[in-house]
Amino acid sequence: MNGFKFFRSSAVVATFFSLTLIACSNDSSSEASIPEPSQIEECVAPAFLKKGDKIALLSPSYHTPDSNVENTAKVLEDWGFKPVIGKHVGAIYAGKYAGNADERAEDFIDALKDTSIKAILTNRGGYGAIHLIDRVDLKTVRDNPKWLIGFSDISTLHAMETKAGVMSIHGTMSSFIGKTGGEDDNSIYMRDLLLGKVPKYKVPANKLNINGKAKGVLVGGNMATFVPLAGSPVDVYSEDGIILFLEELEETMRNLDRMFSSLELRGVMENVKGVVLGEFEECGTDLDFDSPEAMLIERLKKYNIPVMAGFPAGHGDINLPIVMGATVTLDVKDKEATLAFNINGGDEVDVDTDKLTTEKPMPKALRKMLSGKSFDLE
């Protein structure tokens, strides 16, 4: 038993297939050694999906109401995929988690090992993904590469995937897809990326930008989630040549400063070739800076690296998918900035972020729920 059930299906049919890895390294064999904490394994891209493929719906962190998961399952079916709901997704442990740590890890491992499942879409962030780090073997992740999608607390699992040498997608989750019916830009671009349409983002000029061009492996995510991982078994920040993505929700400026200082004290910033600043939603104004981004720019100036500010990813209404673990080119100029992903096998698609609009903005309560700042079952 793999611990999964098909949505509106009475049986699970396991099929084996030959997964083609789209390598971005010289050695993608399963015999490669698991990287030490000071190394980043160069990543492979999982196979892009096709209609009819199965996508697992998992809750590695906080619990999500069954109705939300079922709504997302219907959207996946409408897109032509076959949703598979994890065995413990409906569980509630300690009032908030989607099952205890062992149960959540079991669902994740089952999804990895099930060769008929091609992607894992997380239902919600919140807190708890860190419990999976010492329960999921990196070799299992590396030997079973498939797209993992999520953000917020799922930043922990993106670090694990990158450490294992597998690319993953920082993007919208089941909780939001179920609410919007998958009709928003966040969901559509995520779906298109799964199908092999790789975005090249063009972002309008921002007065906070620092011009320059850099190439490196994209890592990072939600600051409160990934900063504690520095020095851990899934540390992807201690190797030279990284592009750092940062975003946050409802943190004071001093907390943001504290987290950035922690990265500096651990020597992380010496490895950073460029920075992408995402959304900093509803963050405090407790220090005398115009914005959290302005404060971070002041800290970043001394490194003489390119910085793109205002990239629409994170906890804002527009949360565009980006590929963690991919080698990216960041090019910041006076009139615009671009972020391009080096992923073989996909079709590059130009996306002008200035032309995106959100007809169905994310409710503040939902944004807080996704991040774990609040906990509502409905």
Please give the alpha-carbon distance between the first and last residues.
Answer: 31 Å
Share in β-strands: 15-25%
Please, what is the average pLDDT? 88
Radius of gyration: 19 Å
Largest sheet: number of strands, sense, barrel closure:
8 strands, mixed
Description of the molecule:
- It is a single chain.
- With about 375 residues, the chain is an alpha/beta fold.
- Helix 1 packs across helix 5.
- The protein is built from ten helices and 17 strands.
- The protein is globular, with a radius of gyration of 19 Å.
- The model is unreliable at about 5-40 (pLDDT under 50).
- It has helices at about 65-80, 100-115, 140-145, 155-165, 175-180, 185-195, 225, 255-265, 290-300, 365-370, and strands at about 5, 20-25, 45, 55-60, 80-85, 115-120, 145-150, 170, 195-205, 210-220, 240-250, 270-280, 305-310, 320-325, 325-330, 335-340, 345-350.
- About 25% of the residues lie in helices and about 25% in strands.
- Helix 4 links the parallel strand 7 and strand 8.
- It folds into two domains: about 35-195, Rossmann fold (3-Layer(aba) Sandwich), CATH 3.40.50; about 200-365, Glucose Oxidase, domain 1 (3-Layer(bba) Sandwich), CATH 3.50.30.60.
- The longest helix is centred in the first third of the chain and has 13 residues, at about 65-80.
- The strands form three sheets. An eight-stranded mixed sheet has the order 13-12-11-10-15-16-9-17, with helices on both faces. It has a seven-stranded mixed sheet with strand order 1-5-4-6-7-8-14, sandwiched between helices. A two-stranded antiparallel ribbon has the order 2-3.
